[in-house]
Design a protein that fits this description.
By secondary structure, the protein is mainly alpha-helical. It is 63% helix and 3% strand. Helix 8 packs parallel to helix 10 (257-285) and helix 8 (208-231) packs antiparallel against helix 19 (541-570).
């Protein structure tokens, strides 16, 4: 275990330690009680997980506990008071504990866990004077008394307790912004020939307009992920959407190829923000039962955008408007998305909601000691680089699951952008469609993606039953059956496209229908593989996804650069055969992880492991019993780090 991972582990432990939740109003006596408290005793067996604590409070009463009896498994969780017991008697529901664990893990994986991880450089600097000859004031007597919290699990200011209509409005606005960012990635493909002709460059050079945009998708999350964890979701979304619209406007008015390509890169960099943050917003707003539907709809927006753009861009490029209006349209869409964000978006990140609550209380009470825990966080460049660069790369080269799943997803993502070249050759060169009509067959792929989303949603109730039977502890391998099915269907779709689209004698509807298979495969593989990484690595999921995002964006940027030479050199049928064979070779990957994934994760330095509850299995549903509503307790099974 290296120093940074040890610091993260210690911070995770400290963040969950009871002294952070001592009862307010106890004065020095409460502090002494905490210092003299007996440590939490944790008893772990395959069938029993128990956490008990004896801690007196200032009122002489010990902290009560929440006990849940399910399937012969006992789980005892320390109660975390949000107000004075003698006044409100509030107890945090397990839902609140789950939210705390989730956000603490997200924050630790991106920007750090606490002030303990700061470097000693700042501490070694001399302390400045207080000023005006004043001595330093005394410290706050009990700092925890001044830390604001949510008023129980049903606090209306928490995003998960908002009315559904409000969540829906925000979700629609964010879905539109995400669709716009994805739409902008591929609309330039309709203008590559016009750009090459106007600026006197080769077609491969003009294709850089697509590749550099997708490369911006790879680098953007390095900034936007920690930004959203430090300052909330709303601010980065507004900044990025505004800058996205400006850079697309700059592409539209660019006077040379260099300006066009550089601004396309920064458009992608800014467009990466909604792709990075919107999933986190949905996690803020929706509980476990609603989140699957929300993320599925979000994924459909992400993958539909690149396939809608060639159809619209083709008609624009053919018209008197010319290729520049393909970028004007994206800029206009971006500004409209910015308007929707200003109109509908509210902050959803719980720590920032508490920061805003603390600011209001300070203004109204004139008590300037009131603050939120988030305001104690200091930014450290070294730790940011560690969380967002070093660990993702380390996981990519040391974790077989991360490496294999990332390669599979990268291939699928690269093919999504390779289709921007494959389809025009099939439908415009072979079948003689014009540029606008030649974009219509992409709707076959979009329909396939929608069918995959419905397929996954149909399977969701069965997954929830298995989850409940295992005390809400996720078994990652339960996510893989749709990936296995989707992988086989995806391979069939590529063979189908290659051998039905290479000559004009075959009706155009035949290669168009192949899109049902490729779209189904793209969505089912991509969505469930992401869920698999999240379930497998939990508190390190952000690092696993960061590694995945970087590599697949590289594939998405590179594939369009060699697509034309490959297809024209090998022929449509053999290019489709090659891609189909590669896809078929990768089908066994999810099968191997489905059968052996649990053993592989036992040897992992980053993946936590949980004992299976009675009646649950790695490969099947529950045999008997009903599940518990309690969340998995990440602290009961220590995560191994090196």
């Amino acid at each position: 275990m290296n120093e940074e991972d040890r610091a993260l582990s210690n911070a995770e432990y400290d963040a969950g330690h009871p002294h952070h939740y001592q009862q307010p109003g106890g004065g020095a006596g409460a502090r002494e009680a905490v210092e003299e408290a007996e440590p939490i005793e944790r008893v772990e067996t395959g069938r029993r997980l128990e956490a008990t604590e004896s801690r007196p409070s200032s009122s002489g009463s010990s902290v009560s506990s929440v006990r849940m009896q399910e399937m012969g498994t006992t789980t005892t969780m320390s109660r975390l008071p949000t107000q004075r017991d003698d006044t409100y008697g509030l107890e945090r529901h397990p839902t609140a504990l789950s939210r705390i664990d989730t956000h603490r893990s997200q924050h630790s994986a991106t920007v750090g866990a606490s002030l303990r991880a700061r470097t000693t450089t700042r501490q070694s600097k001399p302390m400045p004077n207080f000023g005006a000859g004043k001595p330093f004031p005394p410290l706050l007597p009990e700092r925890e008394e001044y830390v604001v919290e949510f008023d129980g699990p049903n606090d209306p200011i928490h995003a998960q307790n908002w009315p559904f209509a409000k969540k829906l409005r925000i979700g629609v606005a964010l879905g539109y912004v995400t669709l716009t960012a994805a739409f902008g990635s591929s609309i330039f493909s309709a203008a590559t020939f016009s750009v090459a002709e106007q600026f006197k460059v080769g077609i491969e050079i003009s294709t850089l307009g697509v590749s550099l945009y997708v490369l911006g998708f790879a680098t953007g999350p390095i900034i936007w992920a920690p930004f959203s964890e430090l300052y909330g979701r709303k601010l980065p979304l507004i900044i990025a959407t505004f800058a996205f619209s400006i850079f697309n406007l700059a592409v539209a008015v660019g006077k040379d190829a260099q300006t066009v390509f550089i601004c396309r890169f920064f458009s992608g960099f800014m467009g990466a923000c909604p792709l990075t943050c919107v999933g986190a917003v949905f996690a803020d707003m929706f509980n476990n039962k609603q989140r699957g539907i929300a993320i599925t709809v979000f994924s459909v927006c992400v993958f539909s955008g690149p396939l809608l753009a060639p159809f619209i861009g083709g008609f624009i490029n053919m018209s008197y408007l010319g290729w520049r209006w393909t970028e004007y349209i994206v800029s206009i869409m971006g500004f409209f998305g910015l308007f929707l964000l200003f109109l509908l978006m509210e902050e959803t990140y719980p720590p920032i909601i508490l920061v805003n609550k603390a600011a209001e209380l300070r203004r109204r009470t004139k008590n300037w000691g009131i603050h939120a825990k988030q305001e104690e966080i200091e930014v450290d460049l070294r730790e940011l680089l560690e969380k967002n660069l070093s660990r993702p790369l380390r996981m990519l080269v040391t974790e077989p699951i991360v490496l294999a799943i990332t390669i599979y997803m990268s291939f699928v993502y690269g093919l999504l952008y390779l289709m921007l070249t494959f389809y025009p050759i099939v439908f415009q060169k072979v079948h003689g469609f014009n540029q606008g009509v030649g974009g219509l067959p992409y709707f076959g792929v979009i329909l396939g993606e929608v069918l995959a989303a419905l397929f996954i949603l149909i399977l969701q109730p069965g997954y929830v039953k298995k989850l409940e039977a295992n005390n809400n502890m996720p078994v990652p391998e339960w996510r893989l059956p749709p990936v296995i099915v989707g992988g086989a269907v995806f391979s069939v779709g590529l063979f189908w496209l290659g051998w039905s689209g290479f000559k004009r004698d075959i009706h155009w509807i035949v290669p168009t229908l192949s899109g049902l298979c490729t779209g189904f495969g793209i969505m089912s593989i991509f969505l469930q593989c992401l869920n698999y990484l999240i379930d497998a690595y939990l508190m390190f999921a952000a690092s696993a996804i960061a590694a995945n995002t970087f590599m697949r964006s590289i594939f998405g940027a590179v594939f369009p650069l060699f697509a034309r030479q490959m297809i024209e050199g090998m022929g449509i049928q053999w290019a489709g055969t090659l891609l189909g064979c590669v896809a078929a070779v990768m089908v066994p990957l999810p099968v191997i992880f489905y059968l052996k994934g649990a053993k592989i994760r036992e040897k992992s330095h980053f993946a936590p492991t949980f004992p299976l509850a009675a009646g649950a299995s790695h490969h099947g549903g529950p045999s008997s019993g009903s599940g518990s509503d309690s969340p998995p307790d990440l602290e009961k099974q220590p995560t191994k780090t090196e």
